[in-house]
Specification:
This protein is elongated. With 139 residues, it is of the alpha+beta class. Helix 1 packs across helix 4 and helix 3 packs antiparallel against helix 4. Helix content is 45%, strand content 19%. This is Methyltransferase type 11 domain-containing protein.
Length: 139
């Protein structure tokens, strides 16, 4: 990023990101876990909403969006992504325990994560889509 620009004049920017879409995971432990997930990140001041508007944000910065896709991950990898999702959130949970005095909510989340891990063998538990944007900087 030279001189604060995303791309050199006439250059290209390829941006890949994951976007939360809880409509992909209805039923089971997901119904209880997903609102807690959002609440936990919100307490930390973290929002994933900006990803939804990524192409528009790049256009506002003066780039021309050449291609933008937002689609669910292939079913063949959803199970693996689901396991990674559960395991990575266990790490977040460990950090939560260090800063929160109320460990009962962490225990509830741990129980839901265990349920999700089991359910992930039979259905999609991964509430994220793959976002890819290709943009070009003005010459």
């Amino acid at each position: 990023m030279a001189n604060g620009r995303l791309a050199e004049p006439g250059g290209y920017l390829q941006w890949e990101e994951s976007r939360r879409d809880t409509s992909l995971v209805k039923g089971g432990a997901s119904d209880q876990f997903e609102p807690l997930y959002d609440e936990i990140w919100a307490k930390g001041g973290i929002s994933f909403e900006w990803i939804r508007d990524l192409p528009q944000r790049l256009e506002k910065m003066g780039l021309t969006v050449l291609d933008a896709k937002d689609r669910p991950y292939k079913k063949s990898v959803q199970w693996l992504e689901g396991i990674n999702y559960v395991m990575s959130f266990r790490g977040v949970l460990n950090e939560m325990r260090k800063v929160q005095s109320d460990s009962s909510s962490a225990s509830d989340v741990e129980q839901l994560l265990s349920q999700l891990h089991i359910e992930g063998k039979h259905r999609n538990i991964f509430p994220w889509t793959a976002v890819a944007v290709l943009a070009q900087s003005p010459a």
